[in-house]
Design a protein that fits this description.
This protein is α+β, with helices and mostly antiparallel strands and 648 residues long. The protein folds into 3 domains: 284 residues, HUPs (Rossmann fold), CATH 3.40.50.620; 154 residues, Isoleucyl-tRNA Synthetase, Domain 1 (Orthogonal Bundle), CATH 1.10.730.10; 97 residues, OB fold (Dihydrolipoamide Acetyltransferase, E2P), CATH 2.40.50.140. It has 22 helices and 26 strands. It has a 6-stranded parallel sheet, with helices on both faces. Strands 17, 18, 19, 20, 23 and 26 form a 6-stranded antiparallel sheet that branches. The chain has a 4-stranded antiparallel sheet with strand order 5-4-6-8, covered by helices on one side. A hairpin with a 4-residue loop joins strand 4 and strand 5. The longest helix is centred in the middle third of the chain and has 31 residues. It is elongated. The chain starts with a strand and ends with a strand. It binds 5'-O-[(L-methionyl)-sulphamoyl]adenosine. The site of 5'-O-[(L-methionyl)-sulphamoyl]adenosine (MSP) has 21 residues, from strand 1, helix 1, helix 7 and strand 12.
Amino acid sequence: MASTFYITTPIYYVNARPHLGHAYTTIVADSLSRFHRMLGDRTWFLTGTDEHGDKIAKAAAAQNETPQAFTDRVSGQFRALWPRLNVRNDQFIRTTDPDHKARVQQFLQRVYDNGDIYFGEFGGHYCTGCERFYTEKELENGLCPQHLTKPEFIREKNYFFRMSKYLPWLKEYIQAHPDFIRPERYRNEVLAMLEGGVLEDLCISRPKSRLTWGIELPFDKDYVCYVWFDALLNYISALGWPDGEKFATFWPGEHLVAKDILKPHAIFWPTMLKSAGLPMYKHLNVHGYWLSKDAKMSKSLGNVVEPLDMMNIYGLDAFRYFLLREMNFGSDAGFSEESLVTRLNADLANDLGNLFSRVLSMNAKYFGSRVPAAGDRTPDDEALVELAENAVENYIHLFVSVRFSQALEALWELVRALNKYVDTQAPWTLAKEGRTERLSSVIRLILECMRKVACCLWPVMPGTAEAMLGQLGQPVAEGAQPGTHLSDEKGRWNVLTEGAAVASASNLFPRAEMPKAEKPAKAPKAKPAAAEQKSKTEDKSQIVYDDFAKLDLRVGTVLSCEKHPNADKLLKFQIDLGEGEPRQILSGIAAHFKPEELVGRQVCVVANLAPRTIRGLESRGMILSVEDDTRLRLIAPDGEMKPGSRIS
Ligand code: MSP
């Protein structure tokens, strides 16, 4: 029988629009749920909105709306965002759903009947931002440590959950289950809270005289339920606890939260489950904060990044990849567009995009875009196969242990090894030497590895992975997933069908420009004197069309690029101009590019320039570029073109 996997995000407060922090947790949950689906597990992925409590009531009042109208509106913004980020949650819960309310009352009644709820009086410092009481000790200079605001001191009669009764048990449970709270630093933090002896019983009600926006206690109609007690129960009410089929199938599951809500999830929630006699969740996965301008990204600090803006500028999958790759799960990470662009260009455009682009165009040239035959493996091939199998195995292991950044790094070892393998096997030389059988097995092995990479990447970059698999002749049906179980991937070879059609070109990740404000400041070059400038632009005598027609301008694909051995300023290119043999062209642009960044890119070439020999090497053509005061760029078509296409 297939295993089950149930993953949840926090249900988000509807007092503010979703930002990058919320998008991160939800995209991670989506990737995990897709990953487990690809492992063959039956999965359930829940997200939603947390809609009761002081904070929401106040936010609605500030907008002159009723709490219900306000929560309907903002909850709708969360719900609408997720599909745009290609998040496929199975369920979206709202704590104002009648079904949720009924289950919360049922749970309260059960715990009350167990004798774990009592009536008493209590005074404490209440932070509305956190929706919780702080003890004197927990405040920092009298302020809430999260929001840096002064909490309100409240003394009133309320209902309390006997949480302290279960704390010794909880400590033992956490000690006996090393993976219950992960990464380890948060487990240690929770153990320290439990050691500290400051934890008391939990106040779980609010008098209606002060707050009506909540779920009424089943045993006292003058009180509503404390918002956290209500909210945590979403994880089981959504499954139809106590008697729902989904509850029987999917509970216990695992939770995904940031460190801001460690305490309710690591202390309130397990003790609530224990009191009600329910099985513990499997894991609490805790991540750090996305920081912006060195502070936690949050609406109150006014430093939020809009996920849709990032998606619109850089593409959804580049954004999703960046989030998982850049944040070391558990630690904080700084968000900047500059780091997004650096990753996009280095990992996606250069490493991954180039691999697809160069291999598919070589396969087009040598095998008419058909999958070539596999051949006997050489020691080099065996080494690549071993590396690929290890990469897939490590990737799976790291991913399910929520070490996403390390998992992607493990996969990139394969991507980089493939680019290197292309360079060392030099298919163009094999072609030139007429070693067709070897050429065929080299290209085939690379294509097989590319398929593995695409399958592994589907949970993180579903759209791109589907495009890659489509290019490899393995299309994924709309709304479906790649037809493989990741756990079988390690040893799956020769999956592609010999002779089947594959794409002849690929342009998965156009390179991104550095955002303007963050461009490294460069001293502008001294402007040429006005007269000199004039002579450069205006002194060109007019030409007639026939003069222009003498130029043979072509699009080419860079097959290889390296430094000229005897000239620092020159790069030596081998360029595919669709002529069968690559053209060697020298270009004086070494100061502007690293040679490896140019491999796979398309360029525009003056193809009929008379050959010249520069520092001992022949150059047959010229690569077109454009330069302004600060930088130099290559001219290229705005989409992939067949090498040799004529520019007119
Ligand atoms: N409603 C409660 C959760 C109840 S769950 C039973 C809540 N809501 S929240 O809207 O404040 O969401 C907090 C969560 O949003 C964090 O735990 C995290 O998942 C995500 N993030 C919000 N800001 C974030 C960052 N700056 N960085 C990373 N994640 C962030 O707490």
